[in-house]
Structures are given as structure tokens and as C-alpha cells.
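hey can u check if this looks right to u? its 363 residues, i copy pasted from the old doc so theres a chance i mangled smth
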Amino acid sequence: MPAPELTREFFGRVDGTDVHRYTLGRPGGLTVRVLDYGGVIQSLDAPDRAGRPGNVVLGFGDLAGYVANNRPGADRVFLGAVIGRFANRIAGGTFTLDGVQHRVPLNNGKNGLHGGPAGFDTRVWAAAEVRDADDVALRLTLVSPDGDQGYPGRLDTEVTYRVDGHDRLRITYRATTDAPTVVNLTNHTYWNLAGEGTGDVHDHWLELAASRYCPTGDDLIPAGAPAPVEGTPFDFRRAAPIGARLGEPDPQLVIGHGYDHNWVLDDGAPFAARAWDPASGRLLTVRTTEPGLQFYSGNHLTAALTGTSGRPYHRGAGFALEAQHFPDSPNRPDFPGTVLRPGEVYHQETVFALATADGPPAA
């Protein structure tokens, strides 16, 4: 099997800074293209059951698409981006740490979302190429100064994308701080295993290793304790089509216009999620060190978004599986903690493995 390769090319310029696209992969296998703007996974090619490669993630064809999506007032969709400093929502845009209240921008109604209007997805990261005997990697680094988007402490962040010879993409996150702060990093890739721009993902089968999820209020902030998935449309412990229960009159589905919730991953499960597309036979397996997984069924994607294929997206054109800590954790002492202090190291690792299968994941 040929070893993975790594190349770099100029992709555009934003605010006078050059942006590059890095291609990591091996001929005939998994190939991922990553931008140093926002740490974006722009495309990811994987073979189908007949060995034909196809792009299975949503993205824009040029840098202008990403920049326009991040402008004030844009209905941001965070295609493929690194999310930080804090993924997901913070209620009221406030949290208290060591007796001090901190305010972050309100960019999602009355809440803070995905690190704010100028989060990590809007930055140009420093990039270093890494080549080993059996794999290649791209190491991105970013310094977020004290007070950035309202968050305390200087945060030194490192995100590494690594592709090996077994069609696995490994994303490793590392961060340190010089003052107490909160951190919750993830990647916001949207998947369509049938191929980017081919239609919706409602016939994809999904399995989640989670016996509980976090019901929310109208603002998508977790309300109360995690609840059992048993007997609800949120039970994916046995694989089921994503769209099979989307139309049910469940109050939680109504609130989110579909799935946009955190699942509490079961301890000791061999994986976090598996998804399978019947048309291509592609099977995606997700493993992570994180306690939660935000499953978003692409409820607010619209035809105003044109993808790398030149075709418009629509509702459900892709789904996101965001490995992370729970929403609003800084305000919920009952949730796994997200505080990072000087001398500590934030570490997170999520692995996406692509293969093919003749049928949906077995229970």
C-alpha cells in the first residue's frame, strides 16, 4: 500500500495574509484537503464499494465562500472548521469562573455560540508539515490572547490532522493557558457519504453509542439533567435512518427543527458513532476521547450555499458529528468540567475511519 503524501498550494488571501490548502492522503485511499484558514476540512475523498473515490464532506470551492460565511450578519454554518475557544452554546453569553463573571459575544440569539463572531474558524493558523514513515500530518497553531472574544487567559492551541495508510483521519487538539479559562474544541465537518452535493442524508443509517442525551429549552441550551433516549426519536443505539423519525411531533425535534443535540456517550463503548450510506456502501466510524457528541442533521442548510461541486445545498445536505464537551458546561457544575488552568494541558483526540460495508452497522 503506498504511503500517504502531503502537498501545499496557494488558496487565496484574506486581510493581506496568504492562505494555503494542504492535501494529505494516499493514491486510491483517503485524501483530505485542509486550509490554514479556520483549520477547515475543505474536502475529503474516500472510495465507495466499487473503489471509486468521491468527496464526502461539504465545503466551499474558494476562500471567498468561507470569508463571506463568516461576515457579520451571515447565517454561519461553520463548514469543516475548527471551533474554539468554546464549541456549542453558552447561555446568556456569561459564565463565572473563580468568582469572576465573564461575558462573551451574543451571536446566537441570547447565547454565545462556537467561540463568538470571530472564533477560531475565522483565523489564519500557522502551519507545519509533518512526514513520518507511515503517515503524514499537518500541525496548525494559534495564539488566542487574553480577552479574545471575552475569554480570559492567553490560550496556545495546537490542532494536528494526521492521515495514515488505513484510511483514518486523526484530529488531535492540545492547548495551554497562562490564566484560568474554559476550553471546548471540536471540528464542524458536515458529512454526506453518498457524495457532496448529491442530495440529503436522510437515508443514511446512524448508530450512536449513547443511552442518554441532553434535552434543551427553546434556545437549545440543555434544560435539566440528561435524559434516557429509550422510547424517543433520539434512540440510535440500534442503527436507524437519519430521516426515519425527523417528522415525528416530538417537542425536542420541533425545537431544533430536527436533530441538534448533545448525546452523552456511554463509557467503554468501542466507538462513538457509525454512519452508513446504502448508495455508496461507505461506512464512517468515529472514536473520541470526549464525553459528548453533538449530532446535527443539517437543519438550516439552504440553497443559498453553493458547494465545491458547484451544486447548491439544501436542508439535510450533510450531518455533523461534533465530538466535544456538553453545551453550556461552564454554567453547569453537574456536567464534565471544561476549566483549564495554568500548568494543565487540554487534550482531545477524535478519529474518523472510512471503509465500506454491505449493510448498516449491526447492533
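The first helix runs from residue 63 to 69.
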